[in-house]
Amino acid sequence: MLRIDGTARTEVPAAPARCLEVLAAVDEYPAWSSLIADVERLDGGRLRIRAQVLGLAVRMTCALELGADRAVLRRLPHEPGDEEGYEATFTVTPSGSGSRVELHTVAALDAPGPARLLRGRVTKALVDDLLADLARAV
Description:
By secondary structure, this protein is an alpha+beta fold. The chain has one domain (2-25, 64-137): Alpha-D-Glucose-1,6-Bisphosphate, Chain A, domain 4 (2-Layer Sandwich), CATH 3.30.530.20. 26% of the residues lie in helices and 47% in strands. It contains four helices and seven strands, in the order βααββββββαα. A seven-stranded antiparallel beta sheet has the order 1-7-6-5-4-3-2. The chain starts with a strand and ends with a helix.
């Protein structure tokens, strides 16, 4: 199991409401995220996300929780005892004339052995690159 726990922060010129608006528009994720290839809405507010992380195809069913200052994208377990997980928490706060956005990502991915050797690059993709993509989108 490849385990990731990383945090990154950035300043963006957009207001917090705009940042949260972009995060709430899940159908648009493939347009701005270099990782997310497709988002399909399922019943019950669930989402099926198809992503590419360093050439590794990832498919997961997720839920998006929106709050006053945050958006949490969480992988839903496929079955009881499912050890894989993914949780990306975007926290957005006012900063000057824009916003400060923090992304904290925790993941446990069933990855092939060689992928474990690339832990740093996977962490960069799931945290730094995803946050940079969001910053460009707002």
